[in-house]
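User: We ran a pulldown and think these components assemble together. Before we commit to crystallization trials, I'd like a predicted model of the whole complex to look at. Sequences follow.
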Amino acid sequence: MSRYARSPIALVVYAAAAALSVPAQAQQASPGPVKLGIVSFLTGPAASPFGIPGRNGAEIVIEALNSGKAPAPFNQVGLGGAKIEAKYVDEAGTVANVVTEYRNLVQRDQVDAVVGYVSSGSCLAVAPVAEELKTLTVFYDCGTPRIFEEKPRSYVFRVSPHATMDSIGAARYLLAKKKNLTSFSGINQNYAWGQDSWRDFLGAMKVLAPNATPDKVLFPKLFAGEYGAEISTLLTSKSQALHTSFYDGDLESFVYQEQARGLDKRMTMIMTTGEAAIWRLRDKLPDGTIIGGRGANGPLARNSDISKWFQKIYTDRYNTPPTYPAYQMAQSLLGLKLAYEKAAQGGAKPNAEAIAAAFKGIEFEGPAGRVKMALGDGHQGITETAYGTYRFNKQKKEPEIVDIIRYPAECVNPPPGVEADKWIAEGMKGAKCN
Amino acid sequence: MLLTLFAILTDGLVYAAYLFIVAIGLTLIFGVMKILNVTHGSFYAFGAYAAATAVGIYANSDLPAALGFLFMVGLAMAVGMVMGLVLERGILRLVYGRDEVIVVLVTYAVFLILEDVIVLIWGPRSYAAYQPMVAAGNTEIGDLVLSNYDLILVAIAGGLAAITYWALKFTRYGRLLATVIFDRETAAAFGINVTLVYTVTFIIGAVLGAAAGAIMAPKIAITLGIGVEVIVLAFAVVAIGGMGSIEGALIGALIVGICRAAAVHLFPQIELFVIYGVMALVLIVRPYGLFVRAQPRKI
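Assistant: Here's a predicted model for the assembly, 733 residues in total across the polymer chains.
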C-alpha cells in the first residue's frame, strides 16, 4: 500500500466509497423487477370484445399485485416481492407478425414470461417458439384444445379451460331447459373457432339427445356483417334452438338483424360467448337467450371474496363490469404468481424451468372459481362452467343472467390423457356431473 | 319450395343492394381516375362511425326517426366530402402520373393510417346505430319476416343507380366525365379542366363511400376493421362488372347477391366459395369484366 493510501484524504475517500456502497449492496439484495410481456388485441375487430378487456384485466391486477393489495394468498408484493414491469403488445396482424413480436419480447426486451393471446391461430404459432426459446408462456383466452393434445409442452401453460367445455355446457343447459327438443340449428363463423365449437356442440347433442336432429348448419364468413340470407333460412326451418359461437361485431350485427325479423321469437338462441356482449347489447339482446361466458365468469361467477374483489377494482377503474376475457387474464396472472412464488422459495429469482415445474398441476381459487391444472400433463387448467338465461331488468336498467346452472369441471372437460373430440364421440365416458 | 325461391330472390336483392351501395364510389373513381382506391374502405368506416355519432346526438331529441336517418347520412356525407377533398388535394395529386402500383400502395398506406385515426377519435369500442332499422319495422309474408329497412336499402340502391345513370348520360358534368374516361389527354386538349374533374370525382366517390357506411350502420356493429371486409367485397363486385363501369357494378352486385343467397339456402357449405368462384368464372371468360372491353395498349 502506498503512503497515499494512509493519508487523511484517502481515508475520506474510502469512507465516502463505503458509504455509497451500502445502498448499492442493498439494491443487489432486493429482487429486480419481473418483466412480463402482455399480448392482446389492442386494435382490430377483436380488440373491443376481447383484447381490451383482457388488457385492462392485466393492468388492474398487476397494479393490485405491485401494491400488495390483492387478497390472500396473492397479497405478497408483485411476484415474490419483485415488482412487475409489464410491456403491452398488440396481437393484431398476421401470425408471422405475432411470432416476430413474441421473439422481440423474449430476445430484445428480455421478458421473464409472456402472458397473452386471444386467437387460437396465435397460440398454435407461438407455442413451438416458446418451447424453442425456453420462455414461460401463459395463454389466456385462446380456446383450441390442440395446444396440449398435439404434443407435450414444457414452457407453455393455459389456466383458462379450452373451448370443449363451452360446447358441452351449452348442450347440457339447453337440454335441461328444453327436454322435448327435436330439432336445432347452428350458425358459426367459418374458421377454426366456429367449426370446432359446432363440432363439439353437435357431438354432445348426439350423445345427450340422440333423437334431436340438426337442421340448418350455417358457416358464414368471419366478419361477414350481413346475415339476411342466413336469417331467412333459419326463419323457414322448424328448429327450436339455434347454437352460435359468434362474438364481437358478428354477434352484435346478427342480433340487430335477427331482432328486426323476429327470429328470436321462433327459436331459443344459445350464445356460448354471449356474456362478453351483454353490457353493450343491453336491451337489444332478446330475453330468454341462453348465455355462456367461457366459464363461470362475469354474472355467472360465484359470489366469492376474490370474485367480488376483482369485480370491484375493475368496475371502479373502467366504469363497466369485467367480462370473461378480463377474468381469464386475471386467472392467468394469479396462476403465474402462485407458480413463481412457489419456485422462488429460496428468495432468488427463479428461472423458467423452476417456475414451469412449480406451475404443473397447481390448484388455486381465482375470481372465476377453482382452477385445477389437470390436463396436458398439468399444463392445461379446468374449472367449473355455468350457463344461464338472459333478461334485461327494466327496473334497474341492467342486464341479468338468471336461472344459472353450474357444471363441475369433470362434467364438461375430458379426463387427463383423452382428446376432447374422441371423448365426446365415445359418449363422454366418466363425466362426473353430480 | 316457392317460399325458398322467394327468400332467395329477396335475400339476393338485399345483398346486391348492399354490394352496389358500397361498390359504386369505388368503380366511379377507378373509371375516371384509374385509381384502385383502397381508401374507399376508410370512407365506408368513417361514414359508419359518423352515423353512430349522429345517432348519439339525435337519440336525445324528439324528432321523427326518418329525420334521424337523414341526419346520419347527411353527417356521413359531409365527413366523406372533407376526407375526399383533403386526400385528393393533399396526397393523391402528388402521385398522379406515377405507376398504378405506387398509387395503390399510397391509398393502402392512407387506409392503414386512417384505421388508427378511427381509434384516436372513437376509441377501440364498438358502436351501434340500430334505431332506424327498429323504427322501420317488418313485414310478414308467410313464414318469412322481412325487415322494412332491407326493403328501403333495395330502394336506395335502385335510386342511386338511376341517379348515377341520369347524371352520367344526361348532364353536362356527366358528358365531361365520359370524355375524361375516354381519353384524359384529348379531354385536356379540348379545354376540359381535368384536374378539377379529378377532384370533384374523387370527392363524389368519397361521399358515396361514406354514405354507404351510414346506410349500412343500422344493420351492423360499428367496430374496428369494418372497412377491410367491405373493400374486399367491393373489389370482387367491381371486377365482375368491369373496373369503372356503373352498369357493371349493378349487374355484378346482382349476380353475386343472387348466387350467394341461393348458396346459403340450398348449399350452405359453398357459401364462402360462391362470391369468388363467380368472380373467377367471369374473369376466365371476360378478363376485363362483363361491361369493359379489352383495350389496345397505348404506346
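The first helix of chain B runs from residue 2 to 33. That may be worth checking against your pulldown data before setting up trials.

User: Thanks, that helps.
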